[in-house]
Specification:
6-stranded mixed sheet, alpha/beta, 231 residues, 16 strands, 26% helix, 7 helices
Length: 231
């Protein structure tokens, strides 16, 4: 099978709010890899999106989680329960939070912020904390490390991109000159920006990681929030 790198798209509704995200699908003759997998409750949307690209969810051999946030790992436990053969990949730094051995750093941050929210924002804050608490943990099958070369699609390198979270990773497929950014870069009005910089756990690190990705030599950067950036 010819190597294939496909940006997926689906939109999740939260009451009147809607959020669109872009997982990435890597396919070659041996593996079908999903990079990030959406919110709690989004498994049916992922299955439907895969089917649009003539892929059955049961054929996914691995899921790479770029980091611990709810919109990237929210559906992974449900995916694993329904399709137990799938292997889960994440960085060593993120593993304790994804597996539930430690409290999500985003939840800890949200609970701390909740104490300082004005009265008119308290309800929103409680709802956000509840959404984070609803994320089910998932065991990681394989730990990934900075610079590690994976065989997918002719070569896929793990790139440590800390800042948004401490163990955030991106992927670079040098043969195709395509980077998969996760939340290391987002797009706003077609321009690269930090994803929710006000919530970055290390803003200096986040800026350095975005600069690193922009200088990899990629022709295309696939951003989970915002879509495709042509460099």
């Amino acid at each position: 099978m010819k190597n294939s790198i496909t940006m997926l798209t689906f939109t999740m509704a939260f009451g009147e709010a809607r959020e669109t995200v872009h997982p990435v699908l890597l396919r070659d003759g041996a593996d079908t890899i999903l990079v990030d997998c959406g919110f709690v409750g989004s498994l049916p949307l992922i299955e439907a999106e895969l089917e649009k690209h003539h892929v059955q969810a049961a054929d996914v051999t691995g899921i790479v989680l770029t980091h611990q946030d709810h919109d990237h790992m929210g559906a992974v436990a449900a995916f694993k329960e329904k399709y137990p053969a799938v292997k889960i990949y994440a960085s060593e730094q993120e593993e304790p939070y994804i597996s539930g051995k430690r409290k999500s750093l985003r939840l800890a941050q949200a609970e701390e912020l909740q104490k300082r929210l004005p009265p008119d924002q308290q309800e929103f804050g409680r709802a956000f904390c509840a959404m984070l608490k609803a994320v089910e943990p998932a065991e990681i099958d394989t730990l990934l490390h900075d610079g590690e070369e994976l065989g997918w699609c002719g070569g896929c390198r793990v790139v440590a991109t800390p800042g948004h979270t401490p163990g955030h990773i991106a992927l670079y497929l040098e043969q195709h000159k395509i980077a998969i950014a996760g939340d290391a870069i987002a797009l706003e009005n077609g321009r690269p920006v930090l994803a929710n910089p006000q919530f970055a756990l290390d803003i200096e690190g986040a800026n350095a990681s975005m600069a690193q990705l922009l200088n990899l030599g990629a022709d295309t950067i696939l951003c989970y929030h915002g879509g495709e950036l042509r460099c």
